[in-house]
């Protein structure tokens, strides 16, 4: 039997929402890594007390109970995986995986059982629903009623607000069932109550998100932010990570607390608590505990009396209480020597910190991106100027982050850093040796030294010089290709004059003046075809002989079926890789055999190509003869049409002379009686193809006189 089992696309139920991730079962225990936050849950094998297999909405689920009362639920399994999991639990955890279905009768009365951190409502022996008591934020009692209120989860589309239990009165004296129920809930519930004095208090700290100045009161299990308008209580269990980041001006420090679930202010959610300190601020701190309690609780990490910089004291106290290490910038240094890069994200400017295992941007909005969730990064040219560039990050979930307006001098340093961390760079593509080497179940805060960093820096300097040269050259080309005010402006002016001519053509006095611009516009139209038109791409002749294949392709076509039979189920890409390896390992004698076949195929192709070209020449000669004949016929038809037009012209010129003795009328004059007949005559003349000339402006002028 295998020592480990791995499952992808498994969902962990946490406070009413389903968080997807990866689950691995090994001899040491169970590990689940959240794909969204990177948080790792590790359950030791010795802590497991019970395993339950049951049918749920997403297929089948696994519920694990530990000896200290914690419950873990994982959904998304297939029914066929039960036997594999059951055998694994028996072999490595010495546990029987029990099948237990939920009751779906729909009854609303039953028995409440308290087991560890879980409240179970049962009908008979089957559970109807279960409530983790750590989700309870408040418990209130009535006459025969107990009301439970819950912490809200922002990731869940629908949240459970409260549940009310009716507790019937009993005949037992001295025991109130309602109070007993409430005490059982409160003993395990996550109800924040500021009982006792605070361990220490930090006054008037500047907070960037949420903005304002807050007093921070440190309690044993939570910290209390007290401001003029809002108060926040943050349990230490919701703190994911701590960051201590130096500002670019070297005079201030950021202290960032990552929270999940976030704190809420109306409809706004704050996933990060960001404090800003001045390095010059000092403080003397005295903990509200005696020395024995401090030594016993913190084991030398804190002392009763401490003094130093304010940011050092806050970070030191938080590290001891939250029991998480503080992440600081690694060995990255920008062009100016700072450990961050000035850039813009969305609408605001901020600082991007490359860390040992991720990137963090402060401060509005704060963004933390781990390396193990990055699909690729991209270096893009700035949209407004060539003096800056954009740094784009796309995650495996498809989310894209664009950090813009980064100074060009930072390019080399940032490229070296990304290269050393073996991230996929989109511009260059994924090369061999650049695959990510992260443990998919490792915590994203572990610091690891990269042994290739120095070598990558040397290579990066060479690439930086090449990149600068190429970018300068491309910038000059684009600048030269765009010359406003030369050709386009001339064309626009000519079209403007043409437009004015057409608009004023209705005025009788300006007919002669408008003719000149019209001729100019006509010349422009004739000029355009003079420009060399790009030749249309010729389509491939289907009758043309096919090009001969290389020796490798001939061998691959002959060996493809054999490779498939030797490796059943192999994909196309893997088949190509395997074929390349086999061809590379083939002896010289065997390759020469396929080289001879390729040479024979090439000779056959050349012979067929000669025959094909001879046939094409004969076809082209026949085509040229037919074209010449067609042109000759068109000229003859055109000559007949010109003669016919001349006769019609002479007849039309004689017709006005005949009616001159009766009454003289100008050619523009048309009576109402003759309008319809004139139009019909005009249509008839157009159908016959006769070319009648319009009266000139001189004739019309003399006629009007």
From TrEMBL:
PROSITE patterns: HMG_BOX_2 (PS50118). CDD domains: HMG-box_SSRP1-like, PH1_SSRP1-like, PH2_SSRP1-like. Residues 497-507, 647-663, 692-705 have a biased composition (Low complexity). GO terms for cellular component: FACT complex; nucleolus. It is found in: Nucleus, Nucleolus; Nucleus; Chromosome. Residues 532-544, 634-645 have a biased composition (Basic and acidic residues). Residues 517-531, 624-633 have a biased composition (Basic residues). One of its GO terms (biological process) is regulation of chromatin organization. Residues 474-496 have a biased composition (Acidic residues). Keywords: Chromosome, DNA damage, DNA repair, DNA replication, DNA-binding, Nucleus, RNA-binding, Transcription, Transcription regulation. Coiled coil: none annotated. It holds the Pfam family SSRP1_C. One of its GO terms (molecular function) is nucleosome binding. Residues 545-613 form the HMG box domain. It comes from the Eukaryota. Residues 545-613 bind DNA. Residues 458-552, 609-705 are annotated as: Disordered. Component of the FACT complex, a general chromatin factor that acts to reorganize nucleosomes. The FACT complex is involved in multiple processes that require DNA as a template such as mRNA elongation, DNA replication and DNA repair. During transcription elongation the FACT complex acts as a histone chaperone that both destabilizes and restores nucleosomal structure. Belongs to the SSRP1 family. This is FACT complex subunit SSRP1. It comes from Notiomystis cincta. The lineage of its organism: Eukaryota, Metazoa, Chordata, Craniata, Vertebrata. The gene is Ssrp1.
């Amino acid at each position: 039997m295998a020592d480990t089992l791995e499952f992808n696309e498994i969902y962990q139920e946490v406070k009413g929402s389903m968080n997807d991730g990866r689950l691995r079962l090994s001899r040491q225990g169970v590990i689940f890594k959240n794909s969204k936050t990177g948080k790792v849950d590790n359950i030791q094998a010795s802590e497991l007390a019970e395993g339950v297999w049951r049918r749920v909405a997403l297929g089948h689920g696994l519920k694990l109970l530990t000896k200290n009362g914690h419950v873990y639920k994982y959904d998304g399994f297939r029914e066929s995986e039960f036997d594999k999991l059951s055998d694994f639990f028996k072999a490595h955890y010495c546990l029987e995986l029990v099948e237990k279905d939920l009751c779906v009768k729909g009854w609303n009365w039953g028995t409440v059982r308290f087991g560890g951190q879980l409240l179970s409502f049962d009908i008979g022996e089957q559970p109807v629903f279960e409530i983790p008591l750590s989700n309870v934020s408040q418990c209130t009692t009535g006459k025969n009623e107990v009301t439970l209120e819950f912490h809200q989860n922002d990731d869940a589309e629908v949240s459970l607000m409260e549940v009310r239990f009716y507790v019937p009165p009993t005949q037992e004296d001295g025991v109130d069932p309602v109070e007993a129920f409430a005490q059982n809930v409160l003993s395990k519930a996550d109800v924040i109550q500021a009982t006792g004095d605070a361990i220490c208090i930090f006054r008037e700290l500047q907070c960037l998100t949420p903005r304002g100045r807050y007093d921070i009161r440190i309690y044993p299990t939570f910290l209390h932010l007290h401001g003029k308008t809002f108060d926040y209580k943050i349990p230490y269990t919701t703190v994911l990570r701590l960051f201590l980041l130096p500002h670019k001006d070297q005079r201030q420090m950021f202290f960032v607390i990552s929270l999940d679930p976030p704190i809420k202010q109306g409809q706004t959610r704050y996933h990060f608590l960001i404090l800003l300190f001045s390095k010059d601020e000092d403080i003397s701190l005295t903990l509200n505990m005696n020395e024995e309690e401090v030594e016993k609780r913190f084991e030398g990490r804190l002392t009763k009396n401490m003094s130093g910089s304010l940011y050092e004291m806050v970070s030191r106290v938080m590290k001891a209480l939250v029991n998480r290490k503080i992440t600081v910038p690694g060995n990255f240094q920008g062009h100016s020597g700072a450990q961050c890069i000035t850039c813009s994200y969305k609408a605001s400017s901020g600082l991007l910190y490359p860390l040992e295992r991720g990137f963090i941007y402060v401060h509005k909005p704060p963004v933390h991106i781990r390396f193990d969730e990055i699909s690729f990064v991209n270096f893009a040219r700035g949209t407004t100027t060539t003096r800056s560039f954009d740094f784009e990050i796309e995650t495996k979930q498809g989310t894209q982050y664009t950090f813009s307006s980064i100074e060009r001098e930072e390019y080399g340093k940032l490229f070296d850093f990304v290269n050393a961390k073996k991230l996929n760079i989109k511009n260059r593509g994924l090369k061999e040796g650049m695959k990510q080497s992260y443990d998919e179940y490792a915590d994203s805060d572990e610091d690891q030294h990269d042994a290739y960093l120095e070598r990558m820096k040397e290579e990066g300097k060479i690439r930086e010089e090449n990149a600068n040269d190429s970018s300068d050259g491309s910038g000059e080309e684009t600048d030269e290709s765009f010359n406003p005010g030369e050709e386009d402006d001339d064309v626009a002016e000519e079209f403007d004059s043409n437009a004015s001519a057409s608009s004023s053509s209705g005025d009788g006095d300006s007919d002669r003046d408008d003719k000149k611009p019209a001729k100019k516009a006509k010349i422009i139209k004739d000029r355009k075809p003079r420009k060399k038109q790009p030749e249309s791409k010729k389509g491939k002749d289907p009758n043309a002989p096919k090009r001969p294949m290389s020796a490798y392709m001939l061998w691959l076509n002959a060996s493809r079926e054999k490779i498939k039979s030797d490796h059943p189920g192999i994909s196309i890409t893997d088949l190509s890789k395997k074929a390349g390896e086999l061809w590379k390992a083939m002896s010289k004698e065997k390759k020469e055999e396929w080289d001879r076949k390729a040479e024979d195929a090439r000779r056959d192709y050349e012979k067929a190509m000669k025959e094909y070209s001879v046939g094409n020449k004969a076809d082209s000669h026949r085509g040229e003869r037919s074209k010449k004949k067609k042109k000759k016929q068109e000229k003859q038809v055109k000559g007949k049409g010109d003669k016919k037009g001349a006769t019609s012209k002479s007849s039309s010129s004689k017709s006005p002379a005949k009616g001159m003795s009766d009454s003289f009328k100008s050619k523009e004059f048309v009576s109402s009686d003759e309008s319809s007949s004139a139009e019909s005559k005009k249509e008839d003349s157009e159908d016959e193809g006769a070319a009648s000339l319009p009266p000139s402006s001189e004739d019309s002028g003399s006629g009007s006189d």
